[in-house]
Design a protein that fits this description.
By secondary structure, the protein is an alpha/beta fold. It is built from nine helices and 18 strands. It folds into two domains: about 180 residues, Rossmann fold (3-Layer(aba) Sandwich); about 140 residues, Tumour Suppressor Smad4 (Sandwich).
């Protein structure tokens, strides 16, 4: 947690990040992903706030966005304390990075992030050991939770107020760390998957031809998910609570003895030829050489040129993911939602 020494008496505080772009990309046209509208997000933010208030939190650190989602969600509420962040908007994921960094400086106890894997990755870049309740409003949601927004807000409120101890319900997640070799650049990360693609063209951030995929390092692999975490789960499941990752190496299906057919996006299946699969111990490095494109959590992010190399490894040092069910069960056992009144 950030140091509260210069901020006076402790006031429970929840940060709210909402990505106006999440759930709206080209996969709505080329796959079968459902849109997540501005109205959907506005209503979800409202429910998060109402849930957190019911748990005793009235202070929220929030940020501006192009669709005024938070303002529209809260404009009819009375008595809220909204601390607005004012970083310059770039209309990229850097807006999320800056917003979450601002929430850290404002000493938020927990942050609710409305978005998909990419939004939560940006949040982790802004605050590496962030205590987070990730609420699914994206396309591929391997990291965020499919939980009702009211309950997500209530869980955030119980954690922020100290009614439920954060160390008992939020633990560091496994992530994929990306370490460049021989160049003066900071490390990067993926929350779920780092994928090397043999494609010279950037094109859409979100899509690529399955035949060009060469290597994937996964922090989790679950056959009940969509995206590379789902594809990996069909090959060799790895739970998010396991201290292992998964390495997959791919070739063209026509050249491989084994082929896996999995959902690369909602409603969109693709075939991948399997060359290699194996579990990765924590901190075990896998090198990837250019020229290739690297995609993190389903979005192309970095081009490796010839003779450039990065090292990928799975480490348990990611954001602290709040277990909403555990929080609400503890709140119930402690009677946090019971009010005993004398009746004549």
């Amino acid at each position: 947690m950030a140091d509260r020494g210069s901020y006076g008496p402790r006031m429970p505080t929840v940060g709210i990040v909402v990505n106006p772009r999440s759930g709206t990309d080209v996969r709505r046209a080329l796959a079968a992903a459902a849109p997540v509208t501005v109205e959907d997000k506005t209503n979800a933010v409202r429910r998060v706030v109402l849930g957190a208030r019911a748990a005793g939190v009235n202070r929220f650190v929030v940020h501006h966005d192009t669709h005024r989602i938070v303002r529209r969600a809260t404009e009819t509420m009375r008595g809220l304390e909204l601390d607005w962040l004012e970083p310059p908007q770039t209309f990229t994921e850097e807006d999320t990075v800056a917003a979450v960094a601002g929430m850290r400086s404002r000493c938020c106890d927990v942050v609710v992030v409305l978005g998909g894997d990419g939004t939560n990755r940006a949040a982790a870049r802004g605050w590496p050991d962030l205590v987070v309740v990730p609420l699914s409003t994206g396309t591929n949601n391997a990291f965020p939770m499919a939980v009702e927004a009211t309950i997500a807000g209530a869980a955030a409120g119980h954690v922020a107020s100290g009614a439920v101890l954060v160390d008992e319900v939020a633990h560091p997640t496994t992530v994929v760390r990306v370490r460049p070799e021989g160049i003066d650049e900071p490390d990067d990360l993926a929350l779920v998957d780092a994928v090397a693609v043999d494609d010279p063209y950037l094109g859409s951030f979100e899509l690529f031809d399955p035949a060009t995929v060469r290597t994937a390092v996964l922090s989790r692999a679950d056959p009940a998910l969509v995206g590379f975490a789902g594809v990996g789960g069909l090959v060799s499941p790895v739970g998010a609570d396991e201290d292992e990752g998964l390495l997959l190496r791919f070739g063209r299906p026509s050249d491989c003895d084994r082929v896996v057919r999995g959902p690369i996006a909602p409603g969109c299946y693709a075939e991948f030829g399997l060359i290699e699969q194996r579990r990765l111990a924590l901190d075990e490095e896998v090198h990837v050489d250019g020229p290739l494109l690297l995609a993190f959590d389903g979005e192309r992010k970095r081009r490796l040129v010839f003779d450039e190399r990065v090292h990928l490894s799975v480490r348990r040092d990611g954001p602290r993911l709040v277990d909403v069910s555990a929080v609400m069960n503890r709140a119930a056992v402690d009677g946090r939602h019971l009010d005993y009144r004398h009746v004549d």
